[in-house]
Write a structure and sequence with these properties.
- The chain is of the alpha/beta class.
- Helix 1 packs across helix 13.
- The strands form three sheets. Strands 3-2-1-6-7-8 form a six-stranded parallel sheet, with helices on both faces. Strands 10-9-11-12-13 form a five-stranded parallel sheet, sandwiched between helices. Strands 4-5 form a two-stranded antiparallel sheet.
- The chain is about 40% helix and about 15% strand.
Length: about 425
């Protein structure tokens, strides 16, 4: 089966998971990559012979350690206004490339493009966990709603997390290539220059005796530095926290204010007793405390809180995705889910396009209402040389559509 894999371009955590999953899926299926330009250099370094199609990516505008909400909205508005056009263009790519399923890590663009063609979508990510961890704080509700949009529509979904998840973090094999030891250096891992500069200024001014190694740095071996460091200072991105916990490295997490997922990650980190959370304005108080607790955090052997898991979840996720893909050739694809559910015709469209029929069933089995006739070219196992009809998702709808009959219109329509 020919599969499209995509990921979000904010930070490197999504790309790091793609480094783990891409080769595993490629051992069983033909994989094509669709990624934002922001993560392309990282993937080229980590995946030999990597090639891809470049897709748009939504990003956060940041000022020091906080998300600038106004700038974030302004900078992403052009993409949001062009969302339907982008989805149509990506749908044409998917059709030309003969893609039969989409695997996405928090990238809404390719998920919607696949949805518009009636393709099955498997969504795996960490940020979507916020919808499972809502609190009384209104900010958690707003971010849960945003996560629903950024996940896009999905047929199957799995959340990856060291807390409150059935699948633990994903670790690339190179993370464990070096022996774990306790050196004297600190790893500072911050991708944004506006975020990194004030932290380094604080450390140089107040703790010039510390040996600091700054990443990302293409000229240095990150995995070797992480395995041999004394401690880690980073944003509160999930992947970095999980990797530090897996190697037994104390971590000072600096969540970006205004990014609820990172605040949640930092809170859950502190619950393990193996790290601390702080922010720039409190570094003068918290960093000396972090230094004083390094030995205790490194030696922490208390059980993790209930529901936490730092064991590698790669094999479990691989098994789920492969079972999902293998099942597509044996049964009718399931309906999609997400913020805007699929219109009811698409499961039948997916059946038609997968199994090579040339006409739709005479009526919706649930309601008995007739369908508009729409002949299609057979695809999938029955006729692999044909490609899906680009206009299926927008042409097929209920005759005499009621309140749910036109859900193909809008962002998903092509």
């Amino acid at each position: 089966m020919r599969v499209a894999c995509s990921c979000a371009g904010e930070g490197l955590g999504h790309a790091a998971r793609l480094v783990v999953m891409g080769p595993r899926l490629a051992a069983h299926h033909e994989v094509r990559y669709y990624v934002p330009q922001t993560v392309r250099p990282f993937l080229e370094r980590k995946l030999p012979g990597f090639s891809c199609r470049i897709i748009p990516g939504l990003t956060f505008a940041k000022r020091r350690d906080r998300v600038d909400l106004a700038r974030t909205v302004l900078e992403n508005l052009p993409l949001l206004f062009r969302f339907p056009l982008i989805v149509r263009r990506l749908a044409r790519w998917l059709k030309r490339d003969g893609i039969q399923a989409v695997i996405s890590d928090f990238d809404p663009f390719l998920a919607w493009a696949g949805w518009s063609l009636g393709l099955p979508v498997f969504q795996y990510n960490h940020p979507g966990i916020v919808s499972d961890c809502m609190t009384w704080e209104p900010v958690s509700w707003a971010h849960a709603l945003a996560a629903k949009f950024l996940e896009g529509p999905w047929t199957k979904r799995a959340h990856i997390s060291f807390y409150q998840s059935t699948i633990g973090p994903l670790y690339r094999a190179s993370l464990f290539r070096h022996p774990v030891s306790q050196g004297q250096h600190f790893v500072v891992n911050l991708t944004k220059e506006s975020y990194r500069r004030p932290l380094l200024s604080y450390l140089q001014l107040n703790h010039p005796e510390l040996d600091i190694r700054v990443f990302p740095d293409p000229a240095s071996d990150f995995e070797q530095s992480l395995a041999s460091c004394q401690a880690v200072i980073s944003s509160a991105g999930h992947q970095m926290i999980a990797e530090s916990l897996a190697l037994g490295k104390p971590i000072l997490a600096l969540p970006q204010r205004g990014q609820w997922e990172q605040v949640l990650n930092a809170r859950r980190l502190e619950a393990t007793g193996r790290g601390m959370a702080s922010c720039f304005r409190d570094l003068g108080r918290d960093f000396p405390r972090f230094l004083a607790r390094l030995d205790a955090m490194a030696a922490a052997d208390t059980p993790l809180p209930a529901g936490y898991r730092i064991n590698d979840g790669t094999q479990r996720l691989t098994d789920r995705i492969l079972a999902f893909l293998d099942g597509l050739t044996k049964a009718t694809p399931e309906p999609h889910h997400g913020l805007m559910p699929m219109h009811q015709g698409v499961p039948h469209v997916a059946f038609v396009s997968s199994f090579g029929q040339t006409s739709l069933p005479p009526a919706d089995p649930e309601t008995g209402k007739p369908w508009v006739s729409c002949p299609v070219k057979p695809t999938g196992p029955a006729a692999p040389d044909h490609q899906r009809h680009l206009a299926l998702a927008s042409l097929v709808h209920r005759a005499g559509a009621g309140p749910h009959g036109n859900r193909s219109a809008g962002m998903g329509a092509v």
